[in-house]
């Protein structure tokens, strides 16, 4: 039970970090672009440029957060091992069925 609670807490913390990591760069770049537009009277061009940069920065930070979160997990799946395990289970089931049919 404690293991599940710990994993849930980690997932909630990751979700919160992802939200903050996406919102903060977008908001700051939006403010910076608007401020620079007011100074240089560029008519919203810098706002759009900095908004795109903020979105890119948000996705970059999310990528690194998720990558560091999954680094601790064993993400490698050996399909041959799974296939062999399933075949062994099927062979065991067939042997059990043959033993049952020989009993009659």
Please supply descriptive tags for the structure shown above.
104 residues, mainly alpha, 3 helices, elongated
Characterization of the model:
- The two termini are 46 Å apart.
- The chain is mainly alpha-helical.
- The relative contact order is 0.09.
- Helix content is 87%, strand content 0%.
- It is built from three helices and no strands.
- It has one domain.
Summarize the structure.
With 104 residues, the protein is mostly helical.
Number of strands: 0
* Biggest pleated sheet: none
Distance between the termini: 46 Å
Shape: elongated
Would you tell me the overall average pLDDT?
83
Q: What is the tally of helical segments?
A: 3
Number of domains: 1
Give the SSE map.
Blueprint: H1 2-40, H2 45-71, H3 79-102
Helix pairs in contact: 1-2
